[in-house]
Design a protein that fits this description.
single chain; about 375 residues; Rossmann fold; seven-stranded parallel β-sheet; six-stranded parallel β-sheet; globular; binds uridine-diphosphate-N-acetylglucosamine
């Protein structure tokens, strides 16, 4: 008899490290399910996709919907249109979506209207900032999900506040940290990542380097904000050299606002988007990470590396209450003082949250085997 199918969905870069350990569990011969992997194609550049599949050992997607970029409405609608026939063909027992990108809500919405159960991994996180596209995706996906897997206990309260029945909610830990723990030993040394960089020695010296990532529309789509942030990055680089892998959205905004000159110093190393193992290598050795990413706030907490978050809020508060994360927004004085704190005292320290132990995917599949 054939096994019941679970259609798993990925679309954008942060989805790849979340799906990897789940696919690995679902692919085990003793697993009662058969996974079918759909890539929506929201991210399509080689650096934004292929290197992740290879490095994380994710099987080639069974289908790539090739939606590409577009406005939120166009991108979401395209995913929905192209995902529906997949469900009609595969007739899965459930679909599994991760995180909070446009592909997450688009596929969840198609499935729920077809009466196919929706499983949401990384449910219940809330920034309470509805200007973030991801917050809308989180709230709506959770409302239409049947099984909700949470990464930190207090996510359950967020869900309860929105009237979501608690019997579908399971605290399992963090699949992104499963991937981190599985791969940290294979991380690419920074010296290798910077092999082709001319003045690489200063980044490799004992005084260390800062790692910067930035791509949120609220930080990079507004000229005044982006300019302010890049100015403070340049100032920081005089104290500690900065490695800056640049997301395509950020690269195009820097270009559009003619701000590249601000990064024109040997103290800032500009790179294209890095593969997972290169980023992990740099992150784990950084003296300081400056970021507006959600995942990197969690990864730095798991690694015990100081993180200064260039956002006004976080949907991952445990990285602040228990981890190494400090939220500073885009206020120049706050950024300066958080950076100084790390450079002079090594930052606030922290501990690894409960169940961020590399076994979240195993717990998820155990719940699925019991429920379906
Ligand atoms: C998306 C997610 C965000 C996540 C981020 C990680 C949503 C709403 N946002 O944002 O949560 O943190 O991915 O990267 O889903 N582009 C390329 N090549 C690609 C993909 C994108 O050049 O492979 C460029 C395009 O110009 C595109 C822009 O980047 O318009 C933004 O891409 P998009 O997928 O719309 O959103 P992200 O900003 O990447």
């Amino acid at each position: 008899m054939s096994k019941p199918k679970i259609v798993c969905v990925v679309g954008a870069r942060p989805n790849f490290m979340k799906i990897a350990p789940i696919m690995a569990q679902l692919k085990k011969p003793e697993c009662k399910f058969e996974p079918y992997l759909v890539h929506t194609g929201q991210h399509y550049d080689a650096e934004m996709k292929h290197s992740f599949f290879d490095q994380l050992g994710i099987p080639e997607p069974d289908v790539d919907l090739g939606v590409g970029s577009g406005s939120h409405a166009v991108q979401t609608a395209e995913v929905m249109k192209r995902f529906e026939p997949v469900l009609d063909g595969q007739k899965p027992a459930a679909i599994l979506v991760v995180g909070d990108v446009n592909s997450t809500i688009a596929c969840a919405l198609v499935a729920v209207k077809k009466d196919i159960p929706v499983i949401h991994v990384e449910a219940g996180l809330r920034s309470y900032d509805r200007k973030m596209p991801e917050e809308i995706n989180r709230v709506l996906t959770d409302q239409i999900s049947d099984l909700l897997f949470i990464t930190e206990r207090h996510a359950r309260d967020n869900l309860a506040r929105e009237g979501i029945a608690t019997d579908g909610v399971h605290f399992v830990g963090n699949v992104m940290i499963d991937t981190l723990l599985n791969h940290v030993k294979r991380a690419v040394p920074v010296a290798e990542t910077l092999a082709a960089v001319e003045n690489k020695e200063q980044f490799l010296s004992d005084s260390g380097f800062a790692l910067l990532t930035m791509h949120r529309p609220s930080n990079v789509d507004n000229q005044e904000t982006l300019e302010r942030l890049l100015n403070v990055v340049r100032e920081t680089s005089e104290r500690v050299p900065v490695i800056f892998p640049i997301h395509p959205r950020t690269a195009s905004m820097i270009d559009q606002f003619s701000l590249a000159g601000l990064l024109d110093t040997p103290r800032i190393c500009r790179l294209g988007p890095l593969g997972y193992l290169d980023l992990l290598g740099a992150m784990s050795k950084a003296r300081l990470v400056l970021t507006d990413s959600g995942g990197i706030q969690e990864e730095t907490t798991a690694l015990g590396v100081p993180c200064v978050t260039l956002r006004e809020n976080t949907e991952r508060p445990i990285t602040v209450t228990e981890g190494t994360n400090t939220i500073v927004g885009t206020d120049v004085d706050k950024i300066r003082s958080a950076v100084s704190e790390v450079l002079s005292n090594g930052g606030k320290g922290g501990c690894v949250p409960e169940y961020w132990d590399g076994r979240a995917a195993e717990r998820i599949v155990a719940v699925l085997e019991e429920k379906f």
